[in-house]
Amino acid sequence: PSLAVIFPTLNGRRVIILDVGANVDCKPCHLLQFAFMGSIYAHKVLKKRRPRVGLLSIGEEDNKGNHLVIQTSKLLQESSLNFVGNIEGRDITGGAVEVVVCDGFVGNIILKFAEGFAKTTLTIIGKEMEKSLPEIGSVLSRRLFDQVKKDLDYAEYGGVPLLGIKGVCVIAHAASSSKAVKNAILASFEFANEKINQHIERVLDKG
Fold first, then answer.
1. Residue 160 contacts by C-beta under 8 Å, 6 or more apart in sequence?
2. Quick one: DSSP state of residue 166?
3. What parts of the sequence cross the membrane (predicted)?
4. In 3-state terms, what secondary structure has residue 159?
5. For residue 110, which of 19, 30, 11, 22 has the smallest C-alpha distance?
6. What is the CATH number of the domain that holds 33?
7. pTM for the whole structure
8. Range of the domain at 6
9. Which of 186, 167, 194, 166 is nearest to 45 (CA)?
């Protein structure tokens, strides 16, 4: 199984990152499975007919990265997936791919860093707006700020789905508000309605 999280991107679309914490010690075959899971999830949820898959590494070259990344890259190149190659951390939200694959150790660090960085950035911007903008400009900017805050708020997504299991499981944040719990329930309904795990099971059974 793999935990998949959705991030916003610069082009207004969304990107799926997996795994973000279910498996900290992985083999290349596991990351290949994550890629198939993420591709199916992107097809069903992001409505991308043939999602682009990228492997997170420290460089775009095939020979960059640790043993796990290099061996996984070979498997992805030989697969039927729309694998576009390695991507770096700065490319995750650039919109070049719909699916980013990594092991759960790296993915969880990315998730927690993004959560903290978003909170810090929004806090700094909010304080500067209050100090620097005239009243009318502040009202207009506040609307824009609130929209950006909404886009980055984990509560809008509800929770993180656990892919590759029999049934539906959406894991919510430990500090979830009632809004987040509500959206987690709605996400679970969409997940079940799209029969995502059944599709994943069929694809993985084919080998």
1. 3, 4, 5, 20, 170, 171
2. S
3. none
4. strand
5. 19
6. 3.40.718.10
7. 0.83
8. 2-113+151-205
9. 194
